[in-house]
Design goal:
Blueprint: E1 7-13, H1 17-36, H2 38-47, E2 67-74, H3 84-100, E3 103-110
Parallel strand pairs: 1-2, 2-3
Length: 117
C-alpha cells in the first residue's frame, strides 16, 4: 500500500520465518521498482487515487521523502520477536533500503479475534 504521505506499507500475518522473509523482500522490490522503473510508476499511478499519485512518472522519486514500513500482524500481546533468519532478512532489507535513501521501520499490529467465528 502507498499512503498519501508517502509511506509504503507492507503487511503480513506472523506465520513463520518464510512468510516474514518474503515480506521484507517485497519491501525491497517495491522500493527498487519505484526508484528505477518509469513504466512501473505509470502503471502504479493508474491504480492510485488522485491524492496518492506521483506528480511525474518519468522523474525518479526522492527516496528521502518515502518510508518503507513493515507491518506484522500477530495474535500475541507480547513485543514482536522475530525468528533468527527473519532478523537476518530484515537487517539485509533495511540496509539496502537505507542505502537507497529510504526511511525504514517495522510495526507490530495485534490481531483481533473474530467474534463471529
Amino acid at each position: 500500500m502507498l499512503t498519501s504521505d508517502k509511506v509504503l506499507l507492507h503487511v503480513k500475518r506472523y506465520s513463520g520465518s518464510a512468510q516474514l522473509s518474503h515480506l521484507f523482500s517485497q519491501g525491497v522490490v517495491s522500493a527498487e521498482l519505484l526508484l528505477s522503473d518509469a513504466e512501473f510508476r505509470r502503471k502504479l499511478n493508474d491504480k492510485l487515487p488522485d491524492a496518492h499519485r506521483l506528480a511525474d512518472c518519468n522523474a525518479r522519486p526522492d527516496p528521502a521523502q518515502y518510508e518503507v514500513v513493515f507491518v506484522v500482524i500477530s495474535k500475541s500481546a507480547n513485543p514482536l520477536n522475530l525468528p533468527f533468519f527473519s532478523k537476518v532478512s530484515l537487517r539485509n532489507a533495511r540496509r539496502r533500503l537505507l542505502a537507497y535513501g529510504f526511511r525504514v521501520s517495522r510495526k507490530k499490529v495485534r490481531a483481533i479475534a473474530n467474534e463471529a467465528a
